[in-house]
Design a protein that fits this description.
There is one protein chain. The chain is α/β, with parallel strands linked by helices and about 180 residues long. The chain is about 45% helix and about 25% strand. The protein is built from 6 helices and 8 strands; from the N terminus they run βαβββααβαββαβα. Strands 1, 2, 3, 4, 5 and 6 form a 6-stranded mixed β-sheet that branches. Helix 1 packs across helix 6. The longest helix has 18 residues. The radius of gyration is 16 Å and the shape is globular. The model has no long low-confidence stretch (mean pLDDT about 95). The site of flavin mononucleotide has 23 residues, from helix 1, strand 3, strand 5, strand 7 and helix 5.
Length: about 180
């Protein structure tokens, strides 16, 4: 099976997750290409697609939303999985709420696409990489939830990402 792993990112950590997902797919016997949504025209030519983005204010980043919207027909015709990266998914108390929000909103981006799975993963919060405005926004939002307001916090659980990818690979094959 040839799988497209399409991602969007603002500060690079989701790109690393997309690469890790592709590595797991290859170890499981599939071909996998990784591409950034804003640089990708089409999902044609692939048997299945995994698409992911960080969450900003309860939404995927715009290039990821635009990619699934403009490829809705192609994606509806093949098995698809979505994933989202966020601060909230890496914090046990906040995780159920972000899962609920994204499980509701992601299918609305391209309503005829029915993802076989929606993965929710803790991402990276890195105040040193934010510009002044983002730093202020994040301090306020994360601080309100009791989270960190300075420094770098890598909340990615690579075992969880790997297990999810293996499960998605199994679901893609069932779909075939
Ligand atoms: C401007 C901004 C808004 C964000 N909004 C949210 C949010 O609403 N909920 C959340 O849980 N995480 C939020 N985050 C955290 C990011 O989703 C998280 O840091 C993600 O891993 C970043 O991925 P990237 O390094 O690929 O850009 C936000 C981050 C930034 C910079």
């Amino acid at each position: 099976m040839k799988v497209l792993v399409a991602y969007e990112t603002a500060h690079k950590s989701t790109a690393e997750v997309a690469e890790a997902i592709a590595t797991t797919l290859r170890e499981g016997g599939d071909e996998a290409d990784v591409a950034r949504c804003r640089e990708l025209q089409s999902a044609e030519g692939y048997d299945a697609c995994i698409i992911g983005s960080p969450v900003w204010a309860g939404n995927w980043l715009k290039p990821a939303r635009a990619f699934v919207a403009r490829n809705e027909q192609a994606l509806a015709a093949r098995p698809v999985a979505y994933f989202h990266m966020s601060g909230a998914a890496g914090i046990a108390d906040e995780r159920p709420e972000i899962v609920r929000i994204m499980n509701e909103s992601l299918p609305e981006y391209a309503p005829s696409v029915k993802p076989v799975s929606i993965g929710a993963f803790g991402g990276v919060i890195d105040y040193d990489r934010y510009n002044f405005v983002l730093r202020m926004v994040m301090k306020s939002v994360v601080g309100r939830g009791g989270g960190p307001t300075s420094g770098r916090h890598d909340l990615r659980d690579w075992d969880e990402i790997r297990e999810w990818t293996m499960e998605v690979q199994r679901l893609f094959r069932e779909h075939d």
